[in-house]
Design goal:
This protein is of the alpha/beta class. Helix content is 32%, strand content 21%. Its cofactor is [4Fe-4S] cluster.
Length: 459
């Protein structure tokens, strides 16, 4: 698992709240690690603390205590979390730990016995109780008001929108259901109300996230919620349609390729939802997928991809894969490479398999030697880069709509509809960018392409 980019580390990037601390106001810092779902948890915790009269510190030293929201998905992520806890202890000394790694409190206290408290993932009340114990609140009812849009740890023009918690899948390499539980979907009206407030506050892009976005509402039996004088069903298709009416870009992440996903594609063709699907295929050989306890219909998936693209030719497909999974033979890996050649996915990430404490895959026979995993990773990424470069080269000369993320003295860093923040590429404007600001949506003509990024001129 790659480490978080600096923009997702509030201890480095700073929480996006004004520093307007009053004298004597209790102050809390936050370090947020892991996936965007954890980032949403961090935002909710900070919003609750702000409502109780706490200030949010932009650094360790200005805080009365620090919350570290951890990741525990892979051993490398656990190591990063322990390192962040140690750094917070060294810089501040008063540390409360929460998040996925908090499901293993002995693991944390064994390495860092001086932490004040350890809570598990999405245990907001327990985190608040720990903060109250360490730093009692001291609200001023005339000054400390509930922030209208909450505390944001992302740039103001985009926001993650979490629609559910947990997962019902039983993939052998994954322990997320053990840490975060089974699928629990939010009511549709609650999600739409939050999205409406975000858009009203200036958010231009909503990034829909969960552990299994396509399964949204299954646990609720796709019940109906009152909305705008009518009703909306707790189903990803209905939810996406309503989100698309709010006027912001809507991007779907972590979408499993269930048959009903094809119902989303017409919404993309109509422009209601961005033509972008983030689907975790993980592998392509049926035997490998069976050992993963994943759906093993890679051939039918190719047919589905062709059908999606027939309806929406502009569709961008992003996915992640695991190489070196226990038992993976050279022939199985070659099948994955051949499948990638046929699928021609636009955005591809790859991980080398590693054991995770508690995962059933640890006990599988035929573990692949590290040097073989590295060699397969290199071959996989070489092919993925070549596909990406060829697809981006086809965009030279085309006019694309982009959203501006950052502007400095050298140019504007933007993203096309095919690019999610932090995980995909960028489009750079190095001429005529004067007057642009983050959140602006403009048209550009692409004049250069690389393996992952584009360059263009503003029209």
């Amino acid at each position: 698992m790659s480490q978080n980019p600096p923009i997702l580390r509030p201890d480095l990037a700073r929480a996006l709240v004004p520093d307007t601390r009053r004298d004597g106001q209790p102050t809390i810092g936050m370090v947020s690690l892991g996936c965007p779902k954890a980032l949403v948890d961090s935002e909710r915790i900070l919003t609750r603390l702000r409502a109780e009269g706490y200030a949010i510190s932009p650094d360790y030293k200005g805080a009365d205590a620090v919350i570290v929201n951890t990741c525990g998905f892979l051993d490398s992520a656990k190591a990063e979390s322990l390192e962040a806890i140690g750094e917070a202890l060294q810089e501040n000394g008063r540390v409360i730990v929460t998040g996925c790694l908090g499901a293993e409190p002995e693991y944390i206290t064994g390495a860092h016995p001086k932490v004040l408290a350890v809570t598990g993932p999405h245990q907001y009340e327990a985190v608040l109780d720990a903060v109250h114990g360490a730093v009692p609140p001291s609200p001023d009812p005339f000054i400390d008001l509930l922030p209208t849009t909450g505390v944001s740890l992302t740039p103001r023009h985009y926001s993650y929108l979490k629609i559910s918690e947990g997962c019902n899948h039983k993939c052998k390499f994954c322990i997320i259901p053990d840490m975060r539980g089974r699928l629990v979907s939010r009511p549709a009206h609650a999600i739409l109300r939050e999205a409406e407030k975000l858009v009203g506050a200036g958010v231009k892009e909503l990034l829909v996230i969960s552990q299994d976005t396509s399964a949204y509402g299954v646990d609720r039996k796709h019940d109906l919620s009152p909305w705008k004088g009518g009703e909306v069903r707790a189903h990803i298709t209905d939810l996406a349609r309503e989100l698309g009416k709010l006027g912001a870009w809507v991007r779907l992440h972590y979408v499993y390729p269930y048959p009903h996903v094809r119902e989303l594609i017409p919404l993309m063709a109509e422009g209601l939802v961005l033509p972008y699907l983030d689907i975790p295929f993980q592998h392509a050989h049926p035997d490998t997928l069976k050992r993963m306890a994943r759906p093993a219909a890679a051939a039918r998936t190719l047919d589905e991809i062709a059908a999606w693209r027939a309806v929406c030719p502009e569709l961008t497909l992003r996915s992640t894969f695991i190489v070196g999974y226990p038992g993976e033979t050279e022939a199985e890996f070659q099948t994955l490479l051949d499948w990638l050649d046929e699928a021609q996915l636009d955005r591809v990430g790859c991980f080398q398999y590693e054991n995770v404490a508690g995962a059933r895959s640890n006990d599988l026979p035929g573990h692949v030697p590290p040097e073989v995993k590295q060699e397969r990773f290199d071959r996989f990424m070489e092919k993925a880069q070549a596909i990406s470069a060829a697809k981006l080269a086809e965009k030279v000369g085309k006019v694309l709509e982009v959203i501006v993320d950052e502007v400095d003295g050298e140019g504007a860093t933007c993203r096309t509809k095919a690019d999610a923040p932090e995980i995909d590429g960028n489009l750079f404007i190095d001429e005529g960018f004067e007057g642009l600001a983050p959140g602006d949506i403009v048209k550009v003509e692409v004049d250069e392409a690389g393996e992952y990024d584009l360059w263009g001129r503003r029209l």
